Amino acid sequence: MGRPDWHRPRRSAIIVSVTTELAVSGFCDERFGEVRAEFERNFAERGEIGASVALMVDGRPMVDLWAGTIDRDGSPWSADSMTVVFSCTKGATALCAHLLADRGQLDLDAPVAEYWPEFAANGKEKATVEMMLNHSVGVPAFRDRLPDGAYADWDLMVARLAAEEPWWEPGTRNGYHMMSFGWTVGELVRRVSGRSLGRYFAEEIAGPLDADFFIGVPAEHEDRVASVIPAKPQRDDMTEFTRVVVDEPTSLQRMALMNSGGFDPNNPVYRRAEIGGGGGVANARGLASMYRPLAAGGGDLFSPGAVARMAEVSVATKRDATLLLPTRFALGFMKSMDNRRVPFGDRDSVILSSQAFGHVGAGGSIGFADPARGLSFGYAMSMMGPGILLNPRGQALVDAAYRALGCTDNRSGVWI
């Protein structure tokens, strides 16, 4: 496929440099002018602080925009600024597993015990690799308190997972594995490949694709990382998930979110750790680049069959055991989830096409591929938004991209 030249705008592109209250840098093909307009609206009307958005069609860069600041002190967001993209990292971790499977090294239908015998204990004896990827394996949280710094200690986390009793019989239901996904799937990658998750991703996926995306950011790139600014939900603006987190201290939801050993995305210790469930560092260009071969049916990296399997719905439920709302997952990826008809649905949905698959990150970042349209897309930001899935900032950019590609309606729950 060759590497895309993000820095050479096409003849029909608009070079953006606005000297007003907001300076937007980069380029945007005229066809995607609405994406640029929504990106500007995010800053003007939706509370954006610093962000980037990028997309490719058929492997050709069409949008590459950035604006704002990397912190509240006013340091500008530059062309290569990055930030923690939280659960967008799950897509990167899943790709590592799928690449091993596509190369015949990992059987997605096999028992986990074939690769990680210690995990097949305490009620997890029948767990399969597929269950690890589709959030049905039953270990979305840890019942006992994790020690300080636990998320930065790979060996500790995989040992705790191996010993953990499942919250349900593996395979009988699904519940989002908020952070544990990175160690369940990541340990399989490590055991099969003989390399750490971050190293395997860097050498086999990010490197060949020239994707600015790290699972464990090297110290020399720390000065490029924008600070994460947490959202501040109000009591009268809580979803059922956030209410349970606040009111029920022993709940699965509280344990999944808060029992983290003091995880702080703004602490370089955690950014350097290989946290495959939610610690990756990237920008929009890196996210779009990672999904580029998938948008092309596999490109030079994956077989068409592997991409087809990634895109298929593996589990769907009206009430996710963790998130407490309807969810739809492929093997390691999110599918379109339309919860707009329930309270707070504008932040508990992610509306894509039926063929698309990817992953959102806490606060509203997203990366995905749409093979039917040759589209790969990325959005990363520092100011976290409310809710669980994609809030109005990211969805507005996704919607604008789909309209530019000729889609006209998403009332069915998918763009058509």
Your description of this structure?
- With 416 residues, the chain is of the alpha+beta class.
- It has a single domain (1-416), classed as 3-Layer(aba) Sandwich (Beta-lactamase), CATH 3.40.710.10.
- The protein is 29% helix and 13% strand.
- It has 12 helices and 12 strands.
- The chain has helices spanning 33-45, 88-102, 129-133, 154-163, 181-193, 197-209, 240-247, 252-258, 268-272, 284-295, 304-311, 392-404; strands at 13-15, 24-29, 50-57, 60-68, 83-84, 213-214, 281-282, 315-317, 327-329, 357-361, 365-370, 375-381.
- A 7-stranded antiparallel sheet has the order 1-2-4-3-12-11-10, with helices on both faces. Strands 5-7-6 form a 3-stranded antiparallel sheet.
- Strand 10 and strand 11 (365-370) form a beta hairpin.
- It starts with 12 loop residues before the first strand and ends in a 12-residue tail after the last helix.
- The model has no long low-confidence stretch (mean pLDDT 95).
